[in-house]
Design goal:
Blueprint (H helix, E strand, L loop, with lengths): L1 E5 L4 H13 L4 E6 L19 E5 L5 H8 L4 E4 L6 H6 L2 H20 L4 E7 L22 H20 L3 E6 L1 E3 L8 H10 L4 E4 L5 E6 H14 L5 E4 L4 E3 H12 L6 E4 L14 H7 L7 H14 L1 H7 L3 H10 L2
Bound molecules: nicotinamide-adenine-dinucleotide (NAD) and 2'deoxy-thymidine-5'-diphospho-alpha-D-glucose.
Length: about 325
């Protein structure tokens, strides 16, 4: 099988490429990535010299570049996106360009070159804040940030291409990912790296927002199931069912560090901050036999250990451009 992985230099894309190379000894992978601030080829050191792996620098919004990369592949898995909610609040431009127009460009190429299937990696955030119960795949879209609205736009295009042209697309809605190689602007890696540096952690609002967490390896196995046996035209939620308030997560992290509540700094809330995400993931469990295997406690312990052991990786990212952005947010 020959796969085009877009956004493969980012957090989950790079974990998925390493997973595929490890799991399938004959698969060929093309990693197509623009290398924005979030793209990092160091995430792929393990596979960079493998003859079954090839890197192409390119933008999913660039139809010419996409048409060269896509020819002859059996499947496309689209991880490429602008992904950080706070950045989308500061400037939505790149989100609209990549998450909507980029998705459209890929759909056009999949249609034109007769690619067997495209998996669109999307998010539970398109359902908006779920006050109670769980959102299944038929839950209405109620995005509340420029990020989730852009992802919802891409998902709507996928649906339209399925219905109008019969384009072979599957959309996934994943809950919050965590694990090795996550850029240290997101909640868990930001808090873990701050604590390693002896700094306080900035908790938004009252800290009682609820998120559902899935470990990298579990998400890779879910996408693997969908690439191989997912039904074309369908949508699959990918959730673990493990939901915690942000304060509960901070307490678990602090336990690993032996620190107390004095390390928490309550800061201004995120505008439009979704209160709660909760997925009903019974469809992928029932139809594709996938189940998460890593508990949040175990995944968190492994993640903290990875950030302790890979300080060179994240210290580079927490300097320079990142620092400038962080200062803008917190005025530090
Ligand atoms: P990330 O921000 O770590 O990486 C995104 C990657 O996409 C980077 O390598 C970047 O260079 C690349 N990219 C950005 N714009 C591009 C463009 N125009 N053309 C080509 N490449 C481009 O992302 P992530 O956190 O690994 O998320 C991957 C996907 O999963 C995204 O689609 C995101 O919406 C979705 N998702 C993420 C989470 C999460 O918790 N992180 C949860 C659910 C869904
Ligand atoms: O739910 C899936 C989504 O999860 C993905 O689609 C997004 O790409 C991904 O970024 C993530 O979005 P969140 O907004 O949920 O993740 P983030 O890590 O930014 O924040 C998690 C929670 O922690 C959220 O309630 C905000 C809070 N938070 C975050 C940061 C960065 C803080 O309290 N302080 C912080 O400094």
């Amino acid at each position: 099988m020959r796969l085009l992985i877009t956004g493969g230099a980012g957090f989950m894309g790079s974990n998925f490429i390493r997973y595929l190379i490890r799991t399938y000894p004959t698969y060929e992978i093309i990693n197509f990535d623009k290398l924005t601030y979030a793209g990092n080829l160091e995430n792929l050191k393990e596979v960079e010299n493998n003859p079954r792996y090839q890197f192409v620098r390119g933008d999913i919004s660039d139809a010419d570049a996409v048409s060269v990369a896509i020819r002859g592949v059996d499947a496309v898995v689209n991880f490429a996106a602008e992904t950080h909610v706070d950045r989308s609040i500061m400037d939505p431009t790149a989100f609209i360009r990549t998450d909507i127009f980029g998705t459209y460009t890929l759909l056009e190429a999949v249609k034109k070159y007769g690619v067997g299937r495209m998996i669109q990696i999307s998010t539970d955030e398109v359902y908006g804040s779920v006050a109670e119960g769980e959102a299944d795949e038929s839950h209405p879209f109620e995005p509340n940030s420029p990020y989730s609205a852009s992802k919802a736009g891409g998902d709507h295009l996928c649906r339209a291409y399925v219905k109008t042209y019969g384009t072979p697309v599957i959309v996934t809605h994943g809950c919050n990912f965590y694990g090795p190689n996550q850029y240290p602007e997101k909640f868990i890696p930001l808090f873990v790296t701050n604590l390693i540096e002896g700094k306080k952690v900035p908790l938004y609002g009252d800290g009682r927002n609820i998120r559902e967490w899935i470990y990298t390896e579990d998400h890779c196995r879910a996408v693997d199931r969908i690439v191989h046996d997912g039904k074309l035209g369908e949508v699959y939620n990918i959730g673990s069912g493990e939901r915690y308030t942000n304060i509960e997560v901070v307490e678990m992290i602090l336990q690993e560090f032996g620190g107390g509540d004095e390390m928490i700094e309550y800061v201004q809330d995120r505008p439009g901050h979704d209160r709660r995400y909760a997925l009903d993931s019974s469809k992928i469990r029932r139809e594709l036999g996938w189940n998460p295997e890593v508990s949040f406690r175990d995944g968190l312990t492994k993640t903290i250990a990875w950030y302790k052991e890979n300080q060179v990786w994240w210290k580079k990212l927490k300097s320079g451009e990142y620092l400038e952005y962080y200062m803008k947010l917190y005025g530090g």
